[in-house]
Amino acid sequence: MPRCSKRTRSGAAELVPGATALDDHHHHKRSRNTSSRRHSKSEDTSFSPKKCLTWFKEYTSVEEPDILGPEGMEKFCLDLGVDPENVVMLVIAYKMGAKQMGYFTQDEWLKGLTELQTDSVHKLQNKLEYLKSLLNDPHFFKAVYRYSYDFARDKEQRSLDTSTARALLTVLLPRWSLRPALGQFLEHCRRYRVVNRDQWSNILEFSRSVDRELSDYDTDGAWPVMLDEFVEWLRAERRDEAMPAAS
């Protein structure tokens, strides 16, 4: 923003009573404004696409300058001070619209970080708690949960393999009391090598509507067969555990 031109001060003291005091007042006011501007500049709340791209290049290679790959992702997480399996990384990927786990394209990077107005590690670190807090919104969480299915699956397969599904559930639903049991069921039930999209979506609904004791599970409900079988398996496991040991 251009500065205003300087005012002519010749004879000002004679023409305007108290002009010197007034000028001193304006001088102090300008000093305060200058100090305020310096403070704002130090906060650096502006966003620079050029700076954002320069930051992106810190994680790419000469061979693939437009792709941030696994090695770059490891460095990115290290710089952020965040474990790669932290759910906030999934939120960042969602904001970028990333298509494949372990990779960010230059376009995805710019899309997500422009929305977040973030062009440095420090700025993104300052937004990590905010990004985590977004998951408190059930609708946002559901969107991230469903997004994770395509994000994590092998693009040569239509479904998500069970080992990846178990790992994702650990990240997304760490406090769900039935998650360990479902993970055990998926690990040992040979019928299920993959989890399809409908099953994945229903696992979230199951976690929200069925209690730990399975007392409100509706066997006549429209649950996928996989979840019906999980409930049968878990009830059988609990019965066996409750039975007194043979003497």
UniProtKB/TrEMBL annotation:
Specify one Pfam family.
Cullin_binding
Q: Which GO terms describe its molecular function?
A: cullin family protein binding; ubiquitin conjugating enzyme binding; ubiquitin-like protein binding
> What are its GO cellular component terms?
ubiquitin ligase complex
Q: Which Gene3D superfamilies match?
A: Cullin, PONY binding domain, EF-hand
In terms of domain of life, where is this protein from? Answer: Eukaryota
Identify the PANTHER family for this entry.
DEFECTIVE IN CULLIN NEDDYLATION PROTEIN (PTHR12281:SF12), RP42 RELATED (PTHR12281)
What function is annotated for this protein?
A: Neddylation of cullins play an essential role in the regulation of SCF-type complexes activity.
Entry protein name: Defective in cullin neddylation protein
